[in-house]
Design a protein that fits this description.
The complex is a heterodimer of chains A (120) and B (393). Chain A has 120 residues and is α+β, with helices and mostly antiparallel strands. Helices cover 41% and strands 22% of the residues of chain A. The radius of gyration of chain A is 13 Å and the shape is globular. Chain B has 13 helices and 16 strands. In chain B, a hairpin with a 4-residue loop joins strand 10 and strand 11. The longest helix of chain B is centred in the N-terminal third of the chain and has 21 residues. The model of chain B has no long low-confidence stretch (mean pLDDT 97). Classes of the chains: A alpha+beta (120), B alpha/beta (393). The complex binds pyridoxal-5'-phosphate. The site of pyridoxal-5'-phosphate has 15 residues of chain B, from helix 4.
């Protein structure tokens, strides 16, 4: 079994999440949570010309959910909205650089689900 | 049977020596004999019970009824007082809904006392028959504050699946002498000697799968005179005396409350599980686990930033340890323990009231020990928890 969480990258994003806050000029916003485990995320996006220009988030929860949205807030910048809407678990695994186990799927997907929801 | 090296009786543990299983409050591992007894039943004795007039069915019936005898003896009950269910949850659903239809035993919309630490299995079924439910509070020291007053039903856990607390059931019984007194023994049955007469309990429920037996079977114990009066909630085959186009008469105990084909093979497995416990001896198990509890309590208490939701050693409790590590989510703790092949559980453990309204946290991490766990398992857990704390600071 490999140490997924212990990866320095994830822990680093968890301890110092990037792009924290609320975008004043946001075009899309959403709040999502996983009730059973208490993970929460608030996302605000700035969309320009069909692309994601900026992402801000405020999140609380486990490494998977917090580091997940933090990494996405960097990686998705400049991506076309239509492409983001198509991102799935496999794409997320690639972006996060880890294998997501079934029991952590909900945590890991929270950020992506929130962003997709904001886009709809 | 010696407790030392007892892991060798459990295939999952003996085949995976590096696996540390600490999720016993959820379900225990099964002994070789339990597993074998089930396959032997299907290979050699399989037939439906009660109705077949041929040797195989008679044999199956005999074996099934023998389990009832074994289970009765195990908790100091009479055979007729054992109702086989599919587990503790099923027992509570059956009991609550049946009582809701038996005004001879308890009045409509009864006044019910449970505690804040109950598993949802000993809360939600009562809501189905009453909106007058009272919660005995958990105190700072994880014991229960028993309120004054009269209740129609007092239904409490015999051992908490979160804090491990084992309330003094006899004292609680004395405090509410007029109430129908019910115990949830899901977490105590494999760890403590239970005698229903001595406890003076009216009903008691437990699951086979938390006592080294198979899933799919459990017991609802009830005093004979109560089970005889209790409305048979589940109707169908196997539980009738006579059926006409106009009427139905119910069978006597124990068939009365067991409609349909029962979990026969599972019962056979439960028998092997009870025999396993008896071979070691419940007193010896209690003694061993008390020592293990002390060791785990002391070792876990040493970990920086770890908050234990477990009563002090002077207070009676089992080997269930729920905890919080400051700033680290329970799911992360569980996954990082799993990275070292240590299995624990993270969540609310079906006790949302205790977590959200009492402890004020959404979830905790729980390590729960069984008779095959050792101090070495505690050391492995503590070592990894210390590493986790370091990774996060
Ligand atoms: C205290 C307690 N009561 C009831 C139950 C329910 O048991 P089962 O899931 O076997 O019906 C459990 C098990 O999770 C438990 O720990």
């Amino acid at each position: 079994m490999n140490d997924q969480i212990s990866r320095q990258n994830l822990i680093d994003h968890y301890k110092n999440p990037r792009n924290v806050g609320v975008l004043k000029k946001a075009t899309n916003t959403v709040e999502c949570s996983n009730v059973t485990c208490g993970d929460e995320v608030k996302v605000s996006l700035l969309i320009k010309a069909g692309k994601i220009e900026e992402i801000r988030h405020e999140s609380a929860g486990c490494v998977m959910s917090v580091a997940g949205i933090s990494i996405l807030s960097e990686e998705l910048i400049g991506m076309e909205v239509e492409k983001v809407k198509k991102l799935d678990k496999d794409a997320l695994q690639e972006i996060l650089g880890i294998e997501i186990t079934p029991s952590r799927l909900k945590c890991a997907m929270l950020g992506l689900e929130a962003i997709k929801k904001a886009l709809n | 049977m010696e407790i030392k090296n007892i892991k060798k009786h459990f295939p999952i543990l003996s085949q995976n020596p590096d696996f540390t299983y600490l999720d016993n409050a959820a379900t225990t591992q099964k002994t070789k004999k339990v597993i074998k007894s089930i396959s032997r039943f299907y290979r050699q004795h399989n037939a439906n019970v009660h109705r077949g007039i041929y040797e195989l069915s008679e044999k199956a019936t005999e074996k099934y009824e023998e389990v009832r005898k074994t289970a009765a003896k195990f908790i100091g009950a009479k055979e007729k007082e054992i109702v086989f269910t599919s587990g503790t949850t099923d027992s509570f659903n059956l009991l609550a809904r049946s009582l809701g239809k038996t005004p001879e035993i308890v009045k409509k919309n009864p006044k019910i006392l449970i505690t804040e630490i109950e598993h949802h299995a000993n809360y939600l079924p009562w809501r189905e028959i009453s909106d007058d439910i009272h919660f005995a509070r958990q105190k700072e020291d994880f014991t229960i504050e028993w309120p004054e007053g009269d209740f129609d039903i007092v239904s409490i856990t015999h051992a908490s699946n979160v804090t491990g607390l084992m309330p003094d059931a006899k004292e609680v019984r004395k405090k509410y002498p007029k109430a129908l007194f019910i115990l949830d023994a899901a977490q105590s049955i494999a760890h403590k000697k239970i005698d229903v007469k001595n406890l003076d309990v009216d009903f008691l429920a437990f699951s086979s799968h938390k006592m080294y037996g198979p899933t799919g079977i459990g017991v609802l114990y009830g005093k004979q005179e109560l089970l005889e009066k209790l409305y048979p909630l589940k109707v169908g085959g196997g539980m009738i005396a006579e059926v006409t186009k106009k009427s139905a008469k119910w069978a006597e105990l124990p068939e009365r409350h067991e409609a349909g084909t029962p979990p026969i093979a599972q019962a056979i497995g439960l028998q092997a599980a009870i025999e396993f416990l008896e071979k070691i001896g419940m007193e010896k198990i209690e003694e061993y686990e008390k020592e293990l509890r002390k060791y785990a309590f002391e070792e876990l208490s040493k970990i920086k930033g770890l908050k234990l939701f477990h009563p002090n050693l002077e207070i009676d409790a089992g080997t269930v340890f729920s905890f919080q590590l400051e700033g680290i989510h329970p799911h992360d703790i569980a996954e990082m323990l799993s990275e070292r092949n240590i299995a624990v559980r993270a969540g609310h453990h079906c006790c949302q009231i205790l977590h959200r309204e009492v402890l004020k946290i959404p979830a905790s991490t729980r390590a729960s020990f069984a008779v095959y766990n050792t101090k070495d398992d505690v050391d492995k857990l503590a070592k990894r928890l210390n590493e986790i704390v370091k990774i996060f600071t």
